[in-house]
Amino acid sequence: MRFLRENPDEVLLRFGEHVQLVAVTVALGILIGVPLGILVTKVRWLQRPVLLATGVLYTVPSLALFAVLIPYTGIGRGTAVVALVVYSLLVIVRNTVAGIEGVAPLTLDAARGMGMTGGQRLRLVELPLALPVILAGVRLATVATIGTATIAAAIGAGGLGRIIFDGMDRLDSDRIAAGAVPAAALALLADWSLGRLGRAFWHGGESASGGE
Amino acid sequence: MITLDHVSKTFESKGRTVRAVDDVSLTIGAGQLHVLIGPSGSGKTTTMRMINRLETPTAGRITVDGRDVLAMDVVELRRSIGYVIQQGGLLPHLTVAENVAMVPRLLGWQRHRRRERAEELLGLVGLPAGQFADRYPRELSGGQQQRVGVARALAADPPIVLMDEPFGAVDPITRKQLQRELRRVQAAVNKTIVFVTHDIGEAFLLGDQIALMADGRLVQNGTPADLLRRPATPFVTAFTGEDRGLRALEYTTLAEVADAAGSVPATDGDTLPGELSILEAGRELARRGETGVDGFWVSDRGGRKTGYLSYRRFAAMLGEALGPAGATAGEADGDALPA
Amino acid sequence: MLEDPFSFVEYIRENPDDFLRFLSQHVQLTLLSVLFGVVIAVPAAILASRVGLLARPLTGIASVGQTIPSLAVLGLLIPFLGIGFRPALVALTIQAFLPIFLNAYVGIRSVDRAVLDAARGMGTSGGQLLRMVELPLASPVIFAGIQTATVQNIAIATLAAYIGGGGLGDLILQGLSTLNGALLFAGAVPVAVLAITTELALGRLRRWIVPEGLRPTGS
C-alpha cells in the first residue's frame, strides 16, 4: 500500500490509460467483429477461413504478437491496440456466428412468412435473438483484453502493466501489487457487470421471442 | 421373493417434508412379474429403487429372499439384481457387447466368457450378435437400445430384475413388440421382475400381479382380474379406465371364474382350457356351436377338468362387461361376477 | 537493426546454444506446469464432484482465478515465491490448474444422469463408477481443458522471463530493451509456431483420445 499512498497520481494515470486501452480495443473489436461475424453467416464459404484465421492469431502468445508487430508499427499504443483488437476478434466473431446460427429455423420461417426482407430479418429477428450470445462474447473479450493490456506495457502502451513491470524490474512487491491488484479488480468488475448486463438481456430476449 | 414391510420414504424439499412412499407393504413372489403402476408422483419408481438401494427407506424393512437389503453389501446386492431403465441408460463409450457384459465384468468373468454370454443374450432379445455386438449405442434405434438394456440386466443371470418404465421412450408399435418380446423372454428365463409403468395396458398385458399406487400409498395389489373385477376404490376404477369391462373379458381367465368341479354334477359338454380369457372362450364357443348342455368344463394345463361354468353365468359376465357405461362390474356390487 | 527482423534466422544459427536453452526452458515450463496441473486439478475436480460442500468454493475460486490477468498473478506471487525458474513453474502450474479443474469438474458433472443411474444400479463401486463411467465420458472435456491450459501456458511462459524464469520470452525481452528486431523475432516467431503447432497437434490427438462411441457419427 505504500506505493499507492505515495503515488496515487501515477496509479490513477495508469488506471485511466488501461481503461482507455481496453475501451478502444473492445469498441473496435465490436465494430469489426460483429459485422464480420454477420458476413460469414451470409457468405458461408468465408466462415471456415475467417474462423480459422482468427483462431490461429488468437493462439499466438500476446508478447510474441506485440514483438512481431514492432518492426512494422513501432513501439507504443498503436501497435498495442492493433494486437489487442486481433485477439478480441476471435471471441466476438465466433459468438456472433453462434448467436445468429442459433436462431431457431422455425422463427426464421415465421419471419419469412410475414414477408420480411433479408435486412429486416437480420435487424428485427436475428440480431435481437443473438444479442445475449454476442454480449457473452464481448464480456469474454473485455476480460481477456484487460489481462492482455497489462502485457502491452512491455511495448510502451502504458496502463497498469507499466507499474507491474517496473515493480518486477526492481523486485518491489509493493509496486507490483499497486499495478496487479487494480488490474485484477478491474477484470473482476468487468466480468461481473457485463455478466449482469448479459442476464438482463437474456430475459428481454426470451420474452421478445415469445417464450415463457 | 421380495418383501416390503411398512416401507416409507420421506424427502426434505424446500423445508417441506414430502412423503414419496407412505407405509407400503408388498410381497413379490419368485418368478412373478409384478407391476408397480400409478400416476407420476405416486411413488412407484421410488418404491422400486429402494429394492436395490438406489434410494434408502426412511422407515420399514425390505428383504430379498429373507435377507434385509440394508444389511447387505450394496454393491453385491445391486450386482445380484438386474436393472433396466428408460432409454436403456447404456454407456455410450462402450460397444453393445461391452454394455451387455458390464456386470459380468464387474464380477470378474474372463473376457471370452463375457463375450460368449453377451452374444447369447443378444440372441435372446432378438439382436443377432454378428450384426450388433460391436456397434455403439448411438448407432441403434430406441427400441434396439432398449433390448440391449434388457439383455444387460440379464447378463449375470440375476434372480431379480427391476425395470423402470423400460419401454416408456419408444413408439407405440415398437413398444407392443418389446412387450411381446419380454413375455417371451420371461417365459424362457422365469425371473422375479418388478416392472414400473404408468401404462395400464402394459400392466395388464405383462403383470402376473399389479400393485396400484397413488400419492405414495399402495391402493390395491392383486392380479389383473382382481383390479378389474374387485376394484378396491373408485380410484382403481378410474385408473383402470373406461373400457375396463372389455379389459375384464380380456384379462380374466376361465380358471379364475369357474365353479369348482366338485360342486356341480358331472355332465357332458365341451372342455375349454382354463387359461383362456373370457373373450377368447366366447369366440371358441361360437366356433364350436350348440351342444345341448347348460355349461362347459374348464380344464387345467394337464387337461384335468377342474371347474365348471354355466352358459347362464358366462352370458351374465359378457353382458355385464358389455353393458352401458356406469353399469360396470365395480358398481354392480359383485353380484353378476362371482368371486 | 529493426529494419531486418528476418535476420533472426541467422541469429539462431549463430547462437544455437542460447536458442536451444531458451526453447528447452520454455518447453519444460509448459510441459511440467501442465503435468502438475493435471495431477492436482483432476483429483481436485473429482473431489469437488463428490463433496458438494467443496464444489461451490472451488469452482468459484477457479473462475475468479481465470479472470485475474496472468501478469498480475505472476507479479503477485513474487513476494511469496521469489524469482527464477521454479517460482515461474509454480505460477504456471496455478494457471494450468484453472482450466483443467473447471473442465474436469464440468465434464464429470455433466455425465448423463440416466447413465449414472444405470451404472449404479448394476452395482459399480464408487471407484469403478469413476474409472469405468465418469472419467471416460468426461475425457473429451477434460482433454479440452488440458489443450487450453497447454496453449495458454506457452503464452504465459513467455512472461516467465520477466521474473527470471527463462524461456523464449527472454529473447523478446532482450530484443525489446535493445530494440533489436532479430532478437525480437528469434523469440517471437518460434513461440508463435510452438503455440500454433501445439494447438493443432492437440486438436488431432483429441480425436484419438475421445472414446469411439462418443465421436460424432460419420467421422
From TrEMBL, chain B:
<dbReference type="InterPro" id="IPR017871">
    <property type="entry name" value="ABC_transporter-like_CS"/>
</dbReference>
<dbReference type="GO" id="GO:0015697">
    <property type="term" value="P:quaternary ammonium group transport"/>
</dbReference>
<feature type="domain" description="ABC transporter">
    <location>
        <begin position="2"/>
        <end position="240"/>
    </location>
</feature>
<protein>
    <submittedName>
        <fullName>ABC transporter, ATP-binding protein (Cluster 13, osmolytes)</fullName>
    </submittedName>
</protein>
<dbReference type="Pfam" id="PF00005">
    <property type="entry name" value="ABC_tran"/>
</dbReference>
<dbReference type="InterPro" id="IPR027417">
    <property type="entry name" value="P-loop_NTPase"/>
</dbReference>
<keyword id="KW-0067">ATP-binding</keyword>
<comment type="similarity">
    <text>Belongs to the ABC transporter superfamily.</text>
</comment>
<dbReference type="InterPro" id="IPR003439">
    <property type="entry name" value="ABC_transporter-like_ATP-bd"/>
</dbReference>
<dbReference type="InterPro" id="IPR003593">
    <property type="entry name" value="AAA+_ATPase"/>
</dbReference>
<keyword id="KW-0547">Nucleotide-binding</keyword>
<dbReference type="GO" id="GO:0016887">
    <property type="term" value="F:ATP hydrolysis activity"/>
</dbReference>
<dbReference type="GO" id="GO:0005524">
    <property type="term" value="F:ATP binding"/>
</dbReference>
<keyword id="KW-0813">Transport</keyword>
